Amino acid sequence: MNVQATNWPPMPRGYFAIGAERMSKALNLGNLMRSAHGFGASFTFTIGATYQALEAAADTSKGRNHLPHYDWAGLDEMALPQGCQLVGVELIDGAIDLPSFRHPIRAAYVLGPELGSLSPPLIERCDHVVKIPTRFCVNVAMAGAIVMYDRVKSLARFADRPIRPGGPELDETLRGVTNMPETTPIRGQG
To answer: What is the pTM of this model?
Structure first.
């Protein structure tokens, strides 16, 4: 039986967006847009970018055709939906380690530029600031993918990790609702 699952992967309730401040490399935005599209973002954005979103050549999924992108010239132009919490992603003292962070149901994640950090006014505007526990900064598009993965992993209804290496047993009630091979573990449906 080859039935397409409409809710795979299981997406959490709420919504999220992801973007960056003062991005200077179109390929990084393209990679970020592709990841955002794959992880189910509602929109992407830039603040003070030095190029146009249409230059995002690495976006092979054409995410810009499937979800809105906002190019805000400055922080004063940024307008998020009511109730949306702004989460800065920056490797600074006082930031919450990402694995310990409880993601808001409605969130916009903002990453720093390739050659610098989030501006002090933007950090001040953030409801939360998180850091990826690494020894040094990683590529901005990679950082975005890590944050989105953590959001989906922590908010979606996945089975708990087993104690031993491997995945959880496939729930018999879920067989036939996906086109995944029977040997691929399906985690809890959302």
So the answer is: 0.79
